[in-house]
Amino acid sequence: MKIRLFLLCFFLSIGLSIAQEKEGINTEYRAEREKVSDLVHTKLKVNFDYAKSQMAGEAWITLTPHFYNVSDLELDAKAMLIHEITSNGKVLKYEYDGNKLNIKLGNTYAKGEEYTVYIKYTARPEEVEQEGSAAITSAKGLYFIDPLETDPNKPTQIWTQGETEASSCWFPTIDAPNQKTSQEIYMTVPDRYVTLSNGLLKEQTKNSDGTRTDYWKFDKKHAPYLFFMAVGEFSIVEDKWKDIAVDYYVEKEYEPYAMGTFGLTPEMIEFFSDYTGVVYPWSKYAQIIGRDYVSGAMENTTAVIHGEMAYQTASELVDENTWESTIAHELFHHWFGDLVTAESWSNLTVNESFANYSQYLWYEYKYGRDHADSHRLDEIEGYISPENELKDLVRYHYNSKEDMFDGVSYNKGGAILHMLRSYLGDDAFKAGIKQYLTDNQYGTGEAHQLRLAFEEVSGKDLNWFFNQWYFSNGHPMLEVKYVYSEEAKIVTVQIEQTQANLFEFPLAIEVFEGDTPKRYEVWVDQKSKSFSFKYTDKPDLVNVDADRTLLAVISDEKTVENLVHLYKVGKKFEDRKEAIEGLVNEQANEEALKTIQAALNDSYYGLRIMAIENIDLSNSNAKKAIKTIESLATSDEKTLVQAKAISKLAEFDDMKYVDLFNESLSSASSAVKGSALKSLYWVDKDAALTYANSITDDLEKESLKAALVPIFIMDKTESQVAYVGGNLISGMFFSEDKELVDTYKEGFQWIAGSADQEATQNLVDSFVQLGTQYKQYGADKIALQVLQQVLGVKKASDFENKEALIKIVQDGIANLE
Ligand SMILES: [Zn+2]
User: What is the reported pTM?
Assistant: First the structure.
């Protein structure tokens, strides 16, 4: 699963942390689920009651005792109505408490014997009880989207979300990740809809009542949480890898962009098959985009679902495919997660660390090391927080299993794999992966199996590595000092570990006299450790962790001269980034300014953007830089760089750039267009507003909303008040730009105090949507607070339509309560 990390920013910005909502630390040991009975096969027949948001189901569940004889069977079945249970035609007795279904089998079965129970039931997802913790709403498993077709802007859809243990909301099963079953599903739906499930669509039968029954069959075995169904009106865009069907299910208006979004999937399948040494093990690969999806994306075997964020238009795709790493992430789960499954949620990282690291691997393969390393730093940033630093990677004492889906299991896990790869070398790392996947395929794994596989392949003991990184917490916090003994011509590198847990690790140190380094590989295993190196001329730079692989926070005291040299000789993205960052506040120094100026032409676009953002153009020596930025604005190969250059030039507030801004409005890139439009607004308000108001196409308005909404807010454009009303949330909560957030808050006040009913409705709808979709993160409470505030403003107004406005807000509040 790919979570939407920006949600965390959302809660931080509101000052309401998820952690505060939960009480205490759990001390209960979270074991792997005991295996009494093993699932063998699951056959389902389902049809949907749209009026009630329920599903009528029949299940044939085949099981076998795990080891000991059984005469009882316990299944997970959440909030169902159970109508009948039989086996071999005999009615069976059962007890059901709305959560666990205990069946008397009327027979004793021994290991190796298979038996099948038949259960007729009704799934009632809306009745699924909330979990104990107030902040965490248990998932419904089966989601009906606009089932009564009351929302003209929303298509009717059904989709499921099994992880963690919500598949048992729609079929009785042993809902644990250490169970594996093959599957068949017969789905009966109105004939106008398409369906998607795991495995292959074997048969479609039209029924006399206008419905159709689709038969999906999945022959291999996977965990119950990976079961999936979707129903709705979708266009299916067909692609292929070798003779395996690769299909993209999107809403019709996005059909032209499906290839632009998902088209690299076959190349990814090829790359991951090669990398792991295990050929893609499943019969097809489909991806679907679901409305109001509750997470980022989910790796249901052969039937991945993505959230609406995956939808992008042509002009957005010109800039970058922001969903590409998520596509890689879900695909790599088909090896790590679907083929070999974490045996318990405590061990979730053996799924998620690999899915996370696959994003690095894909970027490295496709776009080179700089892009991958830039991504790695972002991921590490997503891990580093006081809260995360106290969590073990493998965690047997979590509070809620949903808590395992965090920056530790994902981001830190990925960064640890990167270190392991660096320590073992590429070939051993790949061979270890192959070993782990082959030894445990169609079964489960935990961190120890991973260790054993890498140990077997490399011949190295890895307990020291796993003990500190997998079964403990934190990371090295290093204070590094360089002491030069000029007479002896020796530099001593003093390394102090300041964190609570002591770590040991290999470290590469490079000493530069001029452009070529002398490289030393050392081992740090004490709280304080010093290493001395001889030199001829005083080194221009000592680069600690030269390979940039250690997960650590390193602080040292590099001089301006060191940093200038670091930019010049540093081969890695992290080197150049550190240099630019360190020099930003030193631009009065000519060499520092020259370095940032040079970075305007860095080979990696991310660093060009960083240099544009940070260069001080008020410096009289920066004339050349202005020329460079002018040229980047029109001709950089990356449109994201062009857009940033345009914004930088807009800071001059100078009419001489009007032509540039106007011409850039016809760019194919939405980033360039948006940047040009905002820039134009500062120098020629009327022209910018005329252009902004001329855009009527919904998709174009969507792709340019980051520019359009603030402009309409600043201008208080009455004709756009309804559009603004529905598009405030992202800017209010998910932006890091404080000034911009203030603009959106101003927009919020504008709509809250407006008599426009459509704008009020759009505002209310967007907050209700946010609150219901992310209820499990506590978003409903925040949305409720906001709407109460709007209600107060409307009540205090003296608008003629005051009552109607109040009703709109009250209805929204009622929907959230
Ligand atoms: Zn994942």
Answer: 0.95
